[in-house]
What does this fold into?
Amino acid sequence: MTLSPDLIHLAVTIVFSFLVGMELRTYREQYHAKEGNLYFGTARTYTFIGILGYLFYRLDPTGLTVYIAALLGLSVLFAMLYWRKLGEGKSSILPYVVMLSVYTFGPLTERFPLWMPSLLFVLIIFLLNAKQSLQHWGETVNMREFETLGKMVLLSAVILPLLPNTDTIPYLPISPFKIWLAVVVISAISYGGYLVQKYFFPSKGYFLTGIFGGTYSSTATTVVLARKAKVGGDNPVIDAAIIAATSMMYLRLLVVAAVFNFSVAKALILPFVVMALGGLLLSFFYLSLKKQQINHAEFVDKNPLELGTAFLFAGLFVLMMVITHFVIGHYGNSGLQVLSFLVGFTDIDPFILSLLTGKYTVAQAELVTAIMIAAGSNNILKAIYAVWFGGIKGGSRSAFWVGLLGVLTIAWALYGI
It folds into this structure.
């Protein structure tokens, strides 16, 4: 025996409407018990609303005249109740919003697969139960994060589609679209690491600072942690965090390479994964030596996603591509290796992206070598920073291992060790 689809749709509507009504009743008893009966219906009322929504939709599924008329009638009833609530200093329209959602269950079950009304039901239940969590989040979140999210949308969904995807820039074998795509990818990776560290791990322990800070700026993370090491003295956990930040840099660069040049990424997998794992093993070793300490790292709460930074990155990206073309054209592969080493003492992301996206007269193996040299020399820079900002006592151990990782990376690039 096969059940009629209409019967199944009606049953789904009734069940979801009743459960939402029960959940709203629980919500009212938990948060608004002192308001008495001044509320819009009970579980039974919401069940009837769901049934009426289904029946009125079925009566005129094309014109929706009856369905809309009934909705207007329910809205008038709620408006009368809401007017009374305003007189008592209450202004929540949550019951009306929930009523509108329940009223749509009928059409949703008829016009969409079951997952659509099911998803709506789950969202209603989740949002009703998440009141305290959302209020706490609203009190703790920096409201400028929404401005930053808007910037991310501007970078990726507004500016990027407007740019031409043809090689229209004189003397550069790359389109404006690909230049800005590089900006969007780097910004997204940096922004993601920043959000994870700030909101999912609010304790900001030293080690987590190193792990997640390394996903968007291992150099800045090293400086911050080294300064803490200078104050705290001999602290193995800070050593572990600094080494972990450099380890995450290798994985971050590998992801960037995979996005823009998968063949180069495949060549980088072995050396970068080996270096990352080696660094993480050292980190866990120092983490096991931890002493009694303060569990919170004083991390600089600076969002990496700023429009000025994005435009500066785009400019550096183009500049690095021009310089790289000039060096390769006049000095060949040896010049590229020297340039890679020197660039490692600056921000290496624009240079590495120029290697991944540009069209040069050198072989892929030479591009891989250049990327590894840049990453290795950048580690040497971080080793210098660790000693400079952390002092001999606070930063020498992490500086030694980070510097060693840099030297090994360069040696692997040049001699294939």
About this structure: The CA atoms of residues 1 and 263 lie 57 Å apart. The longest helix spans residues 364-415. The chain has two domains: 5-136, 144-415.
